[in-house]
């Protein structure tokens, strides 16, 4: 049963990879191995630009979201004794809102604002803004849950051992939160990479990312070239998974078990 | 607890709070709450000449959604809403049926294998959802072995392929959301108190009784959390129905999206989006109530 | 070590300059979290320098609140606090030369043992060499120098306790505060560490303020004990004073088994209470306290009973507990019950229901008010 599940989980990805090496343009027959679709890929400036846009979007939005989300998570914790119910709702809002609603809300808002002010246009900027607004709450929740799991006396121990507010942040809070902040950054990264809908509606003509490029290509019919791009993206994710696994393994070894 | 939680508040503490949460709060309010509020207001506006919203306020968009158009009443839009609900319930049900034994199986595996197994379940969901849809398009396209098999069995007409179809959408949804059910269920199975199963057996319960009284109540919080994580995004799903469903199997998400692209009727699209938000909130409230009634705590919501 | 002078509870002393031998002086400390949650309801206390001083009380009595105020982790709503000659009521925790061993230890998970012990010195801005040197010396003193490179999650409970102690002691504080530091340990380790803590305190001559809810622990370890209840100090004194001359019924009950009875009537030759009459001259009071160990238990017809004089209580054994070194009996007498202990000298046990006589010296009987 477990292996049947693995087949179900990985068959769609495997099929994409296999057909990307197909020497003919067909998803029914596999004729022979060929790299012609990859050659076509790297010769295509549009695709390279889309890849660049995807990378910029993912990295910039994740960094911004990590900074904002960490401060938000710590703020929620430090003031958890107060009535912060509204803050919790505000943070859950982006998490529960259907992404299609999210996307069109920002599309309508930004495009009307752009038309009214004439000072900006839909593009990478609006995409980054949109991505940060759904990534930051996830980072905040990760940071918050890490803090809630701590013995609150640790904060007392800092003051008791002569640390002022700045030293406490520098020598206790940041090092302690570091795993949560790193995890938050990677979560933000996968959220950004996984997203299509919100990017699609907040993008402009100059800011086509890989998923958007693929989307419009599929609308014209699926081609092995698309499979080749998809394979490269799958490869990136698998590499990230392998790194995660290696990281866990090393930490496991360090804890001396 | 110094500033980390004691009852002493004042201007300094308030400033501290604002300094920390203000960037995030302002970001979300300006770039999410304001757009959402604007979208809601659009739903009550008139559809202008280029599909853009204009004053005065009106209920026209909602009437259109209910099926009243130039040609009289038609149930097409209501069919879309109904189909979306059916697909959501079907997909959630299937995900539960698959995820439940999987989560149990992982929780009983040797401890050092469990993180790897969970990672294997989760990794596909790290890829872009469009790519996952392409995978299924490759597998289910006309002329592929699966499609030929289905045709040979008489399930579909020859040369049609398993996609685009309702079936492909259901499969795509299940595939997409499976990890979101496995993770919370795994979390509850890992803490499962097996003594309760023994107690149920000891008190004369059969296999079903032991499951019903010894296992199911303990896993309910995970089940509810998983349902929230699956059903709500499934209801608003856009990519999978659009790619795997084809034009005849429209779901609500596509109906909304079209009003902002080709058809260009923003008020109508906004009205449909509003219905979507309301349905989402209603689902959330019902599940939370259910969670509390069934003895779960606040943990149901993450 | 010089024997510290007797502590005082002196709200009425006009003298407001702290004496040289007073390590901590509290006056009128009041703290409330909302109207219904008064943590400290006016505490006056002098803690002698160099003493092992224990704050004892049931959970919620305010002992931990008091400790937090001394550490500077909470600010009192009213009252003053001197550490040595300095008024530190409004001084922030990180500017007080006081260190705490926290309940559950609060060790930093992101630092190793040496990093934890050196944390306070590092915050003080000492150079690396000084920090290493002092960490080494303190670790050797506490006998954990072999653990310095370990991570916190690799330590046992007892080791963590020592690291927490070293982390506080390395700073050479004026006062060391200990918040139930032994409560998470099993019984054997606990009694070993009690002894060790006491030895360390004696060798350093440092003022230790120790919080516990365990009266046995308080008696074994302390020079002085302050019993707290509902945010107030009920009594301060040496363990012997508290046990033998409790100021009120709360202290009497909290400091171990107490046969405590309301006095119904009193005259020149004795008093009347629930189990009958007690002969002797007693001060005017509300209650009479008879500790179990001042009585001896005999068969009702034993010769000792006949020669014992007036103070014999006749009754029947209702319950008995065999504790190895001694037996503990609950005896029904008059309208009430008394607990009495009998050392095990191989004399056998009384059966339940047996008629017995309890014999006592009136010198051990205490009367108290409240």
Radius of gyration of chain A: 22 Å
CATH class of the largest domain in chain C equals Alpha Beta
| Main sheet: strands, sense, barrel of chain A | none
Q: What's the architecture of the domain at 47-224 in chain A, going by CATH?
A: Orthogonal Bundle
What proportion strand of chain A?
A: under 5%
Largest interface: A-B, 92 and 83 residues
CATH topology of the domain at 47-224 in chain A: MetI-like fold
Molecular structure report:
Chain B: Belongs to the binding-protein-dependent transport system permease family. CysTW subfamily. Chain B: The chain crosses the membrane at residues 20-44, 85-106, 118-139, 167-189, 220-240, 260-287. The complex is a heterotrimer of chains A (257), B (302) and C (370). Chain A is an all-alpha fold. Chain A contains 11 helices and no strands. Chain A has a domain at 47-224: MetI-like fold (Orthogonal Bundle). The two termini of chain A are 31 Å apart. With 302 residues, chain B is mainly α. Chain B folds into 2 domains: 2-64, no CATH class; 75-293, MetI-like (MetI-like fold, Orthogonal Bundle). Chain B is 69% helix and 3% strand. In chain B, the strands form 2 sheets. A two-stranded antiparallel ribbon of chain B has the order 1-2. In chain B, strands 3-4 form a two-stranded antiparallel sheet. In chain B, α9 (207-235) packs antiparallel against α12. The model of chain B is unreliable at 1-11 and 296-302 (pLDDT under 50). The radius of gyration of chain C is 25 Å and the shape is elongated. The model of chain C is unreliable at 1-18 (pLDDT under 50). The chains are: A mainly alpha (257), B mainly alpha (302), C alpha+beta (370). Chains in contact: A-B, A-C, B-C.
Overview features:
heterotrimer, B: 302 residues, mainly alpha, MetI-like fold, 2 domains, two-stranded antiparallel sheet, 12 helices, 3% strand, disordered N terminus, C: 370 residues, alpha+beta, Rossmann fold, 6-stranded mixed sheet, 24% helix, elongated
């Amino acid at each position: 049963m477990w292996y049947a599940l693995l087949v179900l989980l990985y068959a769609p990805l495997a099929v994409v990879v296999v057909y990307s090496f197909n020497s003919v343009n067909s998803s029914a027959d596999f004729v022979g191995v060929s790299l012609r679709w990859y050659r076509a890929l790297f010769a295509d400036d549009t695709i390279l630009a889309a890849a660049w846009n995807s990378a910029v979007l993912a990295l910039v939005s994740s960094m911004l979201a990590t900074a904002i989300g960490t401060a938000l998570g710590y703020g929620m914790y430090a003031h958890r004794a107060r009535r912060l119910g509204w803050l919790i709702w505000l943070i859950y809002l982006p998490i529960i809102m259907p992404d299609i609603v999210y996307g069109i809300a920002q599309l309508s808002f930004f495009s009307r604002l752009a038309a009214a002010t004439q000072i900006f246009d839909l593009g990478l900027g609006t995409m980054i803004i949109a991505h940060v607004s759904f990534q930051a709450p996830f980072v905040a929740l990760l940071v918050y849950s890490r803090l809630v799991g701590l013995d609150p006396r640790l904060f007392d121990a800092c003051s008791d051992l002569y640390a002022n507010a700045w030293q406490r942040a520098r020598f206790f809070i940041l090092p302690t939160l570091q795993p949560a902040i790193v995890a938050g950054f990677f979560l933000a990264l996968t959220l950004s990479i996984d997203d299509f809908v919100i990017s699609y509606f907040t993008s402009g003509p100059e800011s086509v990312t890989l998923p958007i490029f693929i989307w419009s290509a599929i609308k014209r019919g699926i081609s092995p070239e698309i499979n080749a791009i998809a394979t490269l993206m799958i490869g990136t994710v698998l590499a990230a998974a392998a790194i995660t696994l290696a990281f866990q393994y090393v930490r496991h070894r360090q804890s001396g078990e | 607890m110094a500033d980390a939680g004691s009852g002493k508040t004042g201007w300094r503490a308030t400033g501290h709070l604002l300094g920390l949460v203000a960037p995030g709060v302002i970001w979300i309010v300006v770039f999410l709450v304001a757009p959402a509020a604007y979208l809601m207001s659009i739903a009550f506006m008139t559809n202008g000449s280029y599909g853009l919203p204009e004053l005065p306020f009106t209920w026209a968009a909602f009437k259109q959604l209910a099926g009243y158009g130039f040609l009289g009443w038609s149930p097409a839009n209501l069919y879309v809403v109904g189909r979306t609900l059916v697909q959501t319930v079907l997909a959630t049900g299937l995900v539960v049926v698959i995820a439940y034994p999987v989560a149990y199986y992982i929780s009983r595996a040797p401890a050092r294998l469990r993180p790897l197994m969970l990672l294997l379940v989760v990794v596909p969901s790290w890829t872009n959802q469009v790519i996952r849809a392409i995978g299924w398009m490759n597998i289910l396209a006309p002329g592929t072995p699966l499609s030929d098999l289905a045709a040979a069995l008489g399930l579909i007409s020859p040369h049609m392929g398993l996609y685009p179809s309702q079936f492909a959408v259901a499969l795509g949804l299940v595939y997409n959301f499976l990890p979101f059910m496995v993770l919370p269920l795994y979390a509850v199975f890992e803490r499962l108190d097996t003594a309760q199963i023994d107690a149920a057996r000891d008190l004369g319960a059969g296999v079903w009784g032991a499951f019903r009284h010894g296992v199911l109540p303990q896993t309910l919080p995970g089940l509810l959390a998983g349902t929230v994580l699956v059903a709500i995004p499934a209801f608003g799903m856009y990519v999978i129905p659009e790619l795997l469903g084809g034009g005849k199997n429209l779901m609500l998400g596509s109906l909304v999206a079209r009003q902002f692209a080709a058809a260009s009727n923003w008020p109508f699209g906004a009205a449909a989006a509003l219905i979507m938000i309301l349905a989402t909130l209603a689902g959330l409230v019902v599940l939370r109530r259910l969670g509390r009634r069934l003895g779960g705590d606040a943990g149901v919501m993450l | 070590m010089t024997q510290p002078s007797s502590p005082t509870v002196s709200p009425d002393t006009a003298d407001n300059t702290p004496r040289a031998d007073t390590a901590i002086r509290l006056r009128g400390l009041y703290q409330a979290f909302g109207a219904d949650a008064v943590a400290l309801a006016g505490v006056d206390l002098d803690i002698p320098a160099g003493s092992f001083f224990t704050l004892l009380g049931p959970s919620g009595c305010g002992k931990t609140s008091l400790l937090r105020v001394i550490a500077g982790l909470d600010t009192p709503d009213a009252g003053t606090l001197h550490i040595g000659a300095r008024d530190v009521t409004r001084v922030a925790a990180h500017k007080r030369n006081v260190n705490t061993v926290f309940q559950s230890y609060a060790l930093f998970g992101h630092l190793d043992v040496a990093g934890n012990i050196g944390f306070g010195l590092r915050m003080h801005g000492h150079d690396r060499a000084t920090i290493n040197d002092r960490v080494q010396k303190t670790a050797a003193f506490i006998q954990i120098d072999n653990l310095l490179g370990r991570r916190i999650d690799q330590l046992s409970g007892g080791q963590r306790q020592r690291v927490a102690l070293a982390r506080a002691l390395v700073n050479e504080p004026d006062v060391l505060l200990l918040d139930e530091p032994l409560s998470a340990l099993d019984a054997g380790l606990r009694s070993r560490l009690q002894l060790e803590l006491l030895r360390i305190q004696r060798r350093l001559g440092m003022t230790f303020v120790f919080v516990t809810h365990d009266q046995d622990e308080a008696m074994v370890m302390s020079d002085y004990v302050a019993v707290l209840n509902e945010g107030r100090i009920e009594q301060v004194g040496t363990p012997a004073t508290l046990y033998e001359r409790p100021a009120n019924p709360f202290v009497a009950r909290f400091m171990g088994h107490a046969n405590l009875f309301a006095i119904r009537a009193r005259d020149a030759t004795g008093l009347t209470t629930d189990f009958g009459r007690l002969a002797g001259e007693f001060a005017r009071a509300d209650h009479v306290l008879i500790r179990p160990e001042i009585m001896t238990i005999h068969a009702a017809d034993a010769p000792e009973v006949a020669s014992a004089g007036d103070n014999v209580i006749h009754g029947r054994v209702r319950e008995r507990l065999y504790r190895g070194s001694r037996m503990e009996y609950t005896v029904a007498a008059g309208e009430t019950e008394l607990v009495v202990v009998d050392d095990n000298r191989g004399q056998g046990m009384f059966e339940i229901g047996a008629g017995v006589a309890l014999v006592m010296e009136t010198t051990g009987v205490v009367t108290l008010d409240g």
